[in-house]
Specification:
By secondary structure, the protein is an alpha+beta fold. It contains 14 helices and 7 strands. It has 2 domains: about 210 residues, Orthogonal Bundle (Triger factor/SurA peptide-binding fold); about 90 residues, Chitinase A, domain 3 (Roll), CATH 3.10.50.
Length: about 375
Amino acid sequence: MRLLALALSLSALLALNVAAQDAPEPTPEPDPAPVPTPMPTPMPSAPATGPATGPATVPNPSPMPAAPPTSRHDTPIDTGQRVVASVNGEPITGADISFQSWLRAGVPSYRLDDASLDILRRQLAEQVLMATEADLLGVTITESYIANFWGNYQGGPPDYEQLAAQAGVTDARARALVKRSVMADLYLYHRVGIWSEFGHLIKPEPMFSHLVEVTPKELRDLFKNEREVFDLPDTVTYEFYPCPDEPTARGVIEALSVGLTPGAVQPGHETAPMDMVPEVFAFSAELVTFLQEAEVGAISPAYEAEAGWVVFELMERTEGRPAEFSEVQEELRRRMRMSRLDVARTQLLRQLTRQAVFWPKDLFDDDPLPPPKVSGRGAASTLKQDN
């Protein structure tokens, strides 16, 4: 995750231009490659109104196969208003499935196989059940609340315009689907006793909350068994200055060399584990050497980039050390709760589905669903419907 965050932060300002980026894509394999399993309901480590804890970005899928595999569908999923499921009178359309595919798997729905589409359809149905309960209990949330909540696991507020364009839905529908997702998560977190912000409206249920409880002994045992995961590594801190052209880059170097702040260029600031530097900056052996060996305060040469040039200034290096239990106790607790959240979520949804009216009849099948698989380009398609 740290590696991904570093790469994203750099590319957000100025993607470095390297020869490897210009190389042709490898020939895709003949068999379909898996895409990431649709994200489980995230559990931010702080209440939704607090600051974001960082992105949890879904990786890009593998290249598409050259020939489509066999599918029970032969046309792309309908991104219009065709109803593919219904829960307590709330319709779920093909367009909703397309939206969920972009949101959870980061790919268009036609690249997912049938089992994966069933997973997305079921996720939407579960959101309807939980969000409806929260709404009936009087929970209301603002757009700023949604943006803060979203930032806890996506790294920023939802881009409704982009999501709507990708999925073929209106901006209003995109907003409604995102809000419903947040409302469903709020209901879940409160019912299992993880959050209490809306506790006066959503009461925790002991039969669910005990499933995510973590004892002090369990925390100690996890720390003992996985301590090296939390040890603090050697790090290097640097600032990088994206510049539109080489003369500007030279001006940044000159200003930094005499202790001035380049007023026309806003720097990015990063701290990277030293053992990740060769991988993060694999495009330039010279830059890797600079970050590993240069003295603190050193200024790098200007490196050519896609949209201009970039200059690095080395700010600090720190030595790693073993982690202390007190430093990682809350992160340990969060991880253990997250690992148990799905069990509590399943029990909660079983209770809700007993009182629900839904279609098709297999919408909430208890049989485990396989992880999503990429189907052929344009091959995976419409969701199954019962006759």
